[in-house]
Design goal:
Length: 453
């Protein structure tokens, strides 16, 4: 029985004596009526009338008895009908409860079957996942074993196996890139002449998947850690670097970052290069070139450093070109040495520039450069010509204690403020073109001294 159904009243059986009492009452009532009517009939004067009245009295008494019995019979029939209807309702209630119970049992069975199916599906999925993970682990382990083989040809096979594994399984790419970077960070064996080709292949595997132009092979979000690596003809031209660390790396041959894009940090501190090109580099994060050594040419033409550039205590042995470079934040070349010509033609310094204690062994050219904030050239040594023709200084410019060993030219240079030149010195040269209002005094036969107004 449902909890919200009211309890049924208990059905009581009618006792037999109650029917007997009803019959006796009917008989007694008939007898009483008959007695009364006979008494009234006996009072009649005429004999014929008395007889007729007695017959009517008897008929009436029997009628009363019959009517009372009929009433009792009608009551019994009504009770029987009520009992039948109650039995019908009871049967219907029982059937409904049975049906509800069967429905609950069916729903429970279906729920149990559903749960069992879900559990089976989970177990099947887990089994498939475990099998796939075991297969990946086996492939990865085998590829790494190949990479550690003594034979260069086998190591090349290991590199391609790792690349194929990463191409088919994106979740393994960061691990595979970390393995390739670790391989390049290790010192190459001295007795293996073909190791250079293996390392070139490892570099190409890395860089091939850093070019977003080809979505089928692009591995987004890859982080490079090549600190201290020995890299040969390293080429990330057109690549997207999320976060790349090359601190202490040794680059030999031609190194190219041409057209590359950085979305995070690019750390190149204490690295060495033969020839390097950063032309068109789009740097969205910090770029560090502190203490680098460039033995050949260095080109940064058209590059954009959104967060500025740190290039302190560096050394450029060959020509260095920074033409049309945009420096978005403070930039520092403090204590950097340029052995050959350094060109900053049409460079745009949106942030402050510091070149204190910087040495230019060759000519230093800043034609049409724009300095939006403070430009510091204090203690800077210009070993050859220093050309600032048509440059624009919209903030303070300080050349205090600078040394001009060649011709200094500020032709058509625009200064929003009078530049500070306290104790700056220049060799005696009739070709000097100083900023308007600059006071130049003769120090001796070889040197001139510049004095602030």
């Amino acid at each position: 029985m449902a909890a919200d159904e009211p309890p049924e009243r208990q059905l009581r059986v009618m006792p037999w004596w109650l029917v007997l009492v009803g019959l006796l009452l009917a008989a007694a009532l008939g007898w009483l009526v008959l007695g009364l009517l006979l008494t009234e009939a006996d009072r009649a004067v005429q004999q014929d009338t008395r007889a007729t009245l007695r017959i009517d009295a008897i008929r009436t008494g029997l009628t009363v008895v019959a009517g009372t019995g009929g009433g009792l019979a009608l009551l019994l029939a009504a009770r029987r009908q009520w009992i039948a209807e109650r039995a019908q309702r009871h049967q219907e209630a029982v059937a409904a409860r049975d049906q509800a119970h069967r429905d609950r049992v069916q729903a429970h069975a279906e729920s149990v079957a559903e749960a069992a199916q879900r559990q089976q599906d989970r177990q099947s999925t887990a089994a498939e996942h475990d099998a796939a993970e075991r297969r990946l682990t086996e492939l990865y382990t085998r590829a790494v074993e190949l990479l550690g083989n003594d034979s260069a040809a086998v190591r090349l096979g290991g590199l391609h196996a790792l690349e194929r594994l990463g191409q088919d399984n994106p979740s393994q790419r960061s691990t595979i890139v970390a393995v390739l970077c670790a391989y390049l960070r290790m010192s190459p064996p001295d007795d293996e002449p073909r190791e250079t080709e293996v390392r070139r292949t490892a570099q190409r595997v890395l860089t091939r998947h850093l070019r977003a132009q080809d979505e089928t092979v692009y591995w987004p979000g890859v982080v490079l850690d090549l600190s201290g690596a020995a890299l040969v003809d390293f080429d990330v031209a057109g690549c997207t670097l999320v976060d790349a660390t090359f601190t202490g790396a040794a680059f030999t041959g031609a190194t190219s970052f041409v057209g590359a894009t950085t979305q995070g940090r690019l750390l190149l501190g204490a690295t060495s290069f033969d020839d390097v090109a950063f032309d068109g580099l789009q740097a969205g994060g910090d770029v560090t070139l502190d203490e680098i050594r460039v033995r050949g040419t260095a080109s940064f033409d058209g590059a954009e450093f959104g967060n500025g550039l740190c290039c302190r205590r560096s050394h450029f042995a060959g020509p260095a070109s920074f033409g049309r470079v945009t420096f978005g934040q403070p930039t520092s070349f403090d204590a950097t040495r340029f052995e050959d010509a350094a060109t900053f033609q049409e460079a745009d310094f949106d942030g402050a520039l510091s070149m204190e204690h910087t040495e230019f062994g060759g000519s230093a050219s800043f034609p049409s450069a724009r300095f939006a904030h403070m430009a510091l050239f204090r203690w800077t040594a210009f070993g050859a010509d220093a050309l600032f023709d048509r440059a624009r200084f919209t903030d303070a410019a300080n050349f205090g204690r600078a040394r001009f060993h060649g011709m200094a030219s500020f032709r058509d240079t625009q200064f929003s403020r009078t530049p500070q030149v306290e104790q700056a010195r220049a060799v005696v040269d009739p070709g000097h073109r100083w900023p308007t209002g600059t006071i130049v005094e003769r120090l001796d036969d070889e040197w001139l001294v510049l004095v602030d107004q």
